[in-house]
Design a protein that fits this description.
The protein has about 90 residues and is mainly beta. The strands form 2 sheets. A 6-stranded antiparallel beta sheet has the order 3-4-8-7-6-5, with no helix packed on it. The protein has a 3-stranded antiparallel beta sheet with strand order 2-1-9, with no helix packed on it.
């Protein structure tokens, strides 16, 4: 699977985990130079507190376009260390 925005590959992996129709990519598969930490936090009742990254490509920012659960609840432990995308980031088969 590939995560793409503005024709740039943000992440690529054959080992994504699908949760609620979202592909979660291993953190080791992301292109770090496109990611900037965000202060945004949200809460999911069964996964826990999510943190976000903004994506920056060619000077254009896609605010909070990637999220992850630093310390997910037990029900979502499998996505520890994984990152998912939205806000126009395309996730496609490799």
């Amino acid at each position: 699977m590939k995560a793409i925005w503005k024709d740039k590959i943000l992440a690529e992996s054959n080992n994504t985990i699908v949760v609620e129709a979202n592909h979660y990519f291993p953190a080791s598969s992301i292109q770090q130079h496109f990611f900037a930490p965000s202060n945004t936090k949200t809460h999911c009742g069964w996964k826990g507190e999510a943190s976000y990254y903004s994506i920056i490509v060619d000077g254009e920012e896609n605010t909070d376009a990637a999220w992850f659960y630093p310390s997910p609840k037990d029900a979502a432990k499998e996505i520890t260390g994984y990152i998912a995308f939205w806000k126009g980031v395309q996730v496609v088969d490799s």
